[in-house]
Automatic annotation (TrEMBL):
Family, similarity comment: Belongs to the carbohydrate kinase PfkB family.
Record lineage: Bacteria, Pseudomonadati, Pseudomonadota, Alphaproteobacteria, Rhodobacterales
Protein name: Fructoselysine 6-kinase
Listed InterPro entries: PfkB_Carbo_kinase, PfkB_dom, Ribokinase-like
Domain Carbohydrate kinase PfkB: 17-263
Protein keywords: Kinase, Transferase
Length: 277
């Protein structure tokens, strides 16, 4: 019998979000955000594995990771450009204007070593995303981890779903554009490919969550909106922090919604502005 583990490893994407309207950039990226925010929301044993460039932006991502109390043992530094996204704010909502597609991460393959696998086995839970370029490692991750959550964002690629879903325990998808029945059909499709739990986040309409038997809608919580950049990742992080800590999957949904509301109250995904020259 496997002993339950109570930690989380974020594996994959990191970027800096360059706010052109403010002349600053912030650390971000789904896998990094979820690891950092899960710790903020009460999960003490969290870690991040990924690649940064040897540029100023990479150094800032590194520093912010340490400031949040995460180890840098799984961080690789390579010669090249850190992932960058250009964004602006319109009435508190994020608007993406373009990116360098992950920078060096799109041409350098992240290879997990024995230390990484030991970390995954110890903490037990992994989160990654469709922006992470780690599809080749999913079989090993799924074999080693007790649970793998994966953010597909707004992706609707059937071939990609078929490739990734068999390794995933909990699938998160963005579906603000979907009507109710379309979201439910997407949930059914993802379940059929393997994930035991599927969550479709829908912005101001909250989120639909399914365990394969029951589907519930979780509404949003009141928020003092500074920036919505990190809300979706905070929802995931809040849910993971709660469920890894022992909370039932459905009971964790209000906690996830509260986490998303909290994240709307600080700039970018988790703060740390840096002047962009």
């Amino acid at each position: 019998m496997t002993t339950p583990a109570y930690g989380l490893v974020g594996i994959g994407d990191n970027v800096v979000d360059h706010y052109l309207d403010q002349g600053v950039y912030y650390p971000g990226g789904n896998a990094l955000n979820v690891a950092v925010l899960a710790r903020r929301f009460g999960l003490q044993d969290t870690a991040y594995i990924g690649i940064i460039g040897n540029d100023e932006e990479g150094a800032h991502v590194h520093a912010s990771l340490l400031s949040e109390g995460l180890s840098d043992a799984g961080l690789r530094v390579a010669m090249g450009e850190t992932g960058k996204a250009k964004v602006t704010l319109q009435d508190g909502d994020r608007v993406f204007l373009g990116s360098n597609k992950g920078g060096l991460r799109k041409r350098l393959t992240l290879r997990l070593d024995e230390d990484d696998l030991e970390l995954i086995a110890r903490l037990g839970h992994v989160h990654s995303s469709c922006f992470s370029y780690v599809e080749h490692e999913l079989p090993r991750i799924a074999k080693t981890a007790q649970r793998l959550s994966f953010d597909f964002s707004a992706l609707r690629d059937a071939a990609y779903f078929a490739q990734v879903c068999p390794y995933v325990t909990t699938a998160f998808l963005s579906g603000s554009d979907l009507e109710e029945e379309a979201a439910l059909e997407l949930i059914r499709h993802i379940h059929a490919l393997g994930p035991a739990q599927v969550c479709v986040t829908q912005g101001e309409r909250g989120a639909l969550f399914s365990d394969g038997t029951h589907v519930v809608r979780q509404g949003i919580m009141p928020a003092q909106v500074v920036d919505t950049m990190g809300a979706g990742d905070a929802f995931i992080a809040g849910w993971l922090a709660a469920t890894i800590g022992g909370t039932d999957a459905f009971a964790a949904l209000p906690l996830a919604a509260s986490a998303a509301a909290r994240a709307c109250g600080w700039p970018a995904a988790f703060g740390y502005p840096h002047p962009a020259f």
